[in-house]
Design goal:
single chain; alpha/beta; Trna Endonuclease, Chain: A, domain 1; 6-stranded mixed beta sheet; two-stranded antiparallel sheet
């Protein structure tokens, strides 16, 4: 637990500084419109700006809601109407508990301001740490699968676009993240029986999160690959670690996804080895 805690504390201190900066620039959010361009064109302040909302708004959702095609500095400088709409959206969903003084049209007390800074820093830091460790876990998992495939005797080849099965690696070869048809796969294996095995590496830190990682992503890709290439040509697969609901696992299997667990890759490599003539 020490590493996640250290990451959290480091992120907390970092974002506390950014939130203080944002409040100072905007005079505790009372002059947000006048400083909007300066806030939106600073990557750190833009992130804090999105977390003023309850719940926080992703960059993609913010663009859609404000009908702003881009959050790039150059584009915002040329389109003040986009800047205005971006501020309006966040004001509409401003967290009224953290920033009650803005809603009530007054200056914050010192305790109110301090509590808002601490709560915001905690919120952003927790999100950043979760993202970092999920990404790190996924990278480690991909490395484990890659090592297991090489140890089995498969040869790693360069990544490529694979619009048709004929352009996949040769039997006994695999490549890293590549576009298979219209969707990307973390690893693409060409089995010795000539079928293509796209592998998705998924790490879930909660049963709720597992729906997004497994059912709304990997299982959807499985269906797409089977429609694009046919049931006899592809073996959509996911290597899993973390927490998953049993019914979500069953649902993914029913939708054509073959599942293996990262803690025992012998089952994966044993099955692949069984196809060798």
């Amino acid at each position: 637990m020490e590493e996640p805690l250290e990451d959290y504390l480091e992120a907390f201190d970092e974002y506390r500084g950014y939130i203080e900066d944002l409040l100072e620039k905007t005079v505790n959010l009372t002059q947000l419109e006048g400083q909007a361009l300066a806030v939106l064109t600073d990557p750190h302040l833009l992130e804090v700006f999105r977390y003023l909302a309850a719940p926080p708004i992703s960059a993609d959702d913010l663009k859609v809601l404000a009908e702003a095609p881009s959050l790039a500095k150059g584009q915002l400088r040329k389109k003040p109407e986009d800047v205005r709409r971006l501020v309006e959206i966040v004001r509409l969903v401003l967290d009224r508990r953290r920033f009650s003084w803005v809603v009530e049209g007054r200056e914050p007390t010192e305790p109110e301001r301090g509590a808002a800074v601490m709560a915001s820093a905690a919120l952003i830091a927790a999100s950043r740490v979760q993202t970092k460790h999920r990404t790190t876990g996924k990278a480690q998992q991909e490395a484990l699968v890659t090592r297991a495939l090489i140890d089995l005797g498969l040869r790693k080849v360069p990544v490529r676009d694979i619009p048709t099965v004929s352009l996949a690696p040769s039997p006994g070869e695999f490549c890293g993240e590549s576009r298979l048809g219209t969707r990307k796969a973390d690893i693409v294996v060409r089995l010795w029986d000539h079928r293509v095995m796209p592998i998705e590496c998924k790490v879930s830190n909660s049963s709720l999160n597992s729906v997004k990682r497994l059912n709304n992503d990997a299982a959807v890709k499985a269906g797409t690959w089977q429609r694009d290439f046919g049931l006899r040509q592809v073996v959509p697969t996911a290597v899993l670690s973390g927490v998953y609901n049993l019914h979500n696992l069953v649902d993914a299997q029913d939708r054509g996804l073959t599942l293996f667990w990262a803690h025992d890759l012998r089952l994966l490599t044993g099955w692949i080895a069984s196809l060798r003539a």
